[in-house]
């Protein structure tokens, strides 16, 4: 992880889906570790299965490695949803959103509300607005969680390690 700060472009590259050329939405990865948005790979799978007569597999759009869905009995419509989520990319997306101050409170989002997040719980790996952070602290189970302010992360740059480092392994 050297010089991450100077590699803003590469950082964006890492988070860009090669199908839609936009920042990942729900990043999912194939066995070859290539990552796509769930909706993009879903569209791709459906058209690939339609073209190939034997519809029990598809190949990676980038490296052409065959992907044989484990649960063969599922319809191709289900394959994309069953692919594992790329947690590394998701945590990078979080960092990016925080840096651009585009991070919204995770608890409020559950209720379809958009409130700007002000803090981050390092134990839950969730962002909170002011009200939800107070709420979080008032629970016995979560009161001991380490909460850091997003503006502290922003000032320290991408290299900040307040996020759990195990997602980087
Ligand atoms: Zn995409
Ligand atoms: Zn691949
Ligand atoms: Zn909230
Ligand atoms: Zn927490």
Polypeptide structure, described:
Keywords: Metal-binding, Zinc, Zinc-finger. It holds the Pfam family zf-RING_UBOX. One of its GO terms (molecular function) is ubiquitin protein ligase activity. This protein is an alpha+beta fold and 169 residues long. The chain has two domains: 85 residues, Herpes Virus-1 (2-Layer Sandwich); 66 residues, Double Stranded RNA Binding Domain, CATH 3.30.160. Helices cover 37% and strands 11% of the residues. The chain contains seven helices and seven strands. A three-stranded antiparallel beta sheet has the order 6-5-7. A two-stranded antiparallel sheet has the order 1-2. Helix 2 runs antiparallel to helix 3. It is elongated and about 55 Å long. The protein starts with 7 loop residues before the first helix and ends in a 13-residue tail after the last helix. The structure holds zinc ion (ZN) (4 copies). The site of one zinc ion has 6 residues, from loops.
Could you give a short description of this structure?
Residues 100-150 form the B box-type domain. This protein has 169 residues and is α+β, with helices and mostly antiparallel strands. The protein has helices at residues 8-14, 38-51, 76-82, 87-99, 106-110, 130-138, 150-156; strands at 27-29, 35-37, 58-59, 66-67, 119-121, 126-128, 147-149.
């Amino acid at each position: 992880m050297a010089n991450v700060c100077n590699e803003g472009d590469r950082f964006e590259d890492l988070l860009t889906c090669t199908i839609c050329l936009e920042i990942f939405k729900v990043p999912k990865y194939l066995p070859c570790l290539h990552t796509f948005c769930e909706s993009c790979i879903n569209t791709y799978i459906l058209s690939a299965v339609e073209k190939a007569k034997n519809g029990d597999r598809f190949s990676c759009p980038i490296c052409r490695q065959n992907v044989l869905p484990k649960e063969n009995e599922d319809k191709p419509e289900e394959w994309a949803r069953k692919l594992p989520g790329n947690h590394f990319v998701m945590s990078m997306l979080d960092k990016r959103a925080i840096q651009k101050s585009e991070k919204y409170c995770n608890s409020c989002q559950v209720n379809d509300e958009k409130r700007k997040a002000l803090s981050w719980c390092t134990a839950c790996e969730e962002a909170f607005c002011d009200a939800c952070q107070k709420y979080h602290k008032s629970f016995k189970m979560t009161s001991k969680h380490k909460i850091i302010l997003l503006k502290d992360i922003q000032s320290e740059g991408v290299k900040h390690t307040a996020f759990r480092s195990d997602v980087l392994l």
